[in-house]
Amino acid sequence: MRIIDLGSESMSIKVGDEIIDTNETCYPQYLISRHNIGGGINYFYGNGREPTEVPQIDWTQKSYFDSYYFDRSLWHSVSPIVSGAQNGGGHRDVLLLDFVKPS
Questions:
Q1: Which residue segment(s) compose the domain that 17 sits in?
Q2: Distance CA 1, CA 13 (A)
Q3: Residue 103 lies in a domain
Q4: Mean pLDDT, residues 76-83 taken together
Q5: What is each CA distance from 47 to 34, 50, 55, 72, in whole angstroms?
Q6: Which of the two ends of the chain, N or C, has the fewest CB atoms closer than 10 A to its terminal CB?
């Protein structure tokens, strides 16, 4: 998945800020690349019936193949990315793998 910020507020594609729990059996995420961006911070809100009010952990994937794994019990979110100082926008590429138990 490529998440892009084109460098202008009206053209930015932003994802994140919503706290979710996924329905996947397990869900690894691998960083492929980051270019000219800030943000993209992963927040983890525990695995209770409801998310905690504030993140228990935050982490930014910065290097190739920085990765994490979680399952359907973990509440999480990712902050939107914003273009950095260089012209031309920026991006964050991640590889997401969903494993779902067959019905």
A1: 2-96
A2: 13
A3: no
A4: 86
A5: 28, 8, 11, 9
A6: C
